[in-house]
Design goal:
Helix content: 40-55%
Shape: elongated
Distance between the termini: 48 Å
Radius of gyration: 20 Å
Number of strands: 2
Structural class: mainly alpha
Length: 261
């Protein structure tokens, strides 16, 4: 009986790469970002014992879509949600799919039709009304660029906010103290840069792009010749479940069209 070990890796790689080229003609917009989704789910899920609505797969995916559209690191809205509602579990706004304490023009909690729309809305507001400056509509009261957490905090929570800036900064980067204990989120954000330019998920060798060597590694993982640890960021599924052909197709798009920057 023939097994995969009877065939050289190069032949299998060539075959699978040919299939990817035939099937891969997914538009460049579908090349996925990779502040790794599994970290979002694992870290926030651990802090909330799996109860946070923000770890639902569709919400995480919408967060990445919003990050690409609005140019804001998705970890920032998570950090604000951590401070405002402990990731959607506390406070009156959470019944309106609002984990961020976002208010409407009358000072009431803004109602979002779903958690997916909520995370999109939070990133949109952070982009248009704070990090990239004033725009029309619901940003009319914001007149200066606020691209740091302390500057955002001056408007987002202007009074009676206690350690808002300290806690949001800590959630965004390493951890924060809540209810007398330290909750470690380890999201690893850099408070000096709240923008999002995307990364190369299929960049296994760390050279800043996805090239043929990276694709060969991914195909080797697909075929079980190599361990997924050779390219851990390539696993784009929520929750993480291994590196499969769909992940390699995303990487092939990055090779063909370039990574999101």
């Amino acid at each position: 009986m023939w097994t995969k070990h009877d065939f050289p890796l190069g032949r299998d790689c060539a075959l699978l790469l040919a299939l990817l080229v035939a099937a891969g003609s997914i538009s460049p917009a579908n090349a996925a970002p990779c502040f790794p989704a599994y970290r979002w789910v694992v870290e926030v899920g651990s802090a909330t014992a799996g109860a946070s609505p923000l770890i639902k797969g569709s919400v995480v995916r919408e967060g990445f879509a919003g990050a690409i559209r609005w140019g804001v690191d998705p970890r920032l809205q998570l950090a604000i949600a951590g401070q405002e509602s402990f990731f959607g579990l506390r406070g009156t706004c959470t019944t309106l799919n609002n984990a961020w304490g976002i208010m409407d023009s009358r000072g009431n909690c803004r109602n979002f039709s779903s958690w997916e729309r909520g995370v999109w809305g939070a990133l949109s507001i952070l982009s248009r009304c704070y990090i990239y400056g004033r725009t029309k509509g619901d940003c009319s009261s914001f007149d200066v660029i606020r691209a740091t957490i302390p500057a955002i905090g001056e408007k987002w929570c202007a009074s009676g906010c206690g350690d808002w800036v300290l806690n949001v900064t800590a959630f965004y980067s390493t951890g924060v103290r809540q209810d007398g204990r330290t909750v470690r989120t380890s999201l690893g954000g850099d408070p000096r840069d709240l923008t999002y330019r995307g990364t190369c998920c299929g960049d296994c060798n760390g050279n800043g792009q996805v090239d043929i060597e990276d694709l060969i590694v991914l195909v080797g993982i697909n075929l079980a010749y190599l361990h997924p640890a050779f390219c851990p960021l390539a696993d784009l599924d929520v929750p993480a479940d291994g590196i499969f052909v769909n992940d390699t197709i995303s990487a092939s798009n990055e090779a063909l069209f370039g990574c999101i920057r």
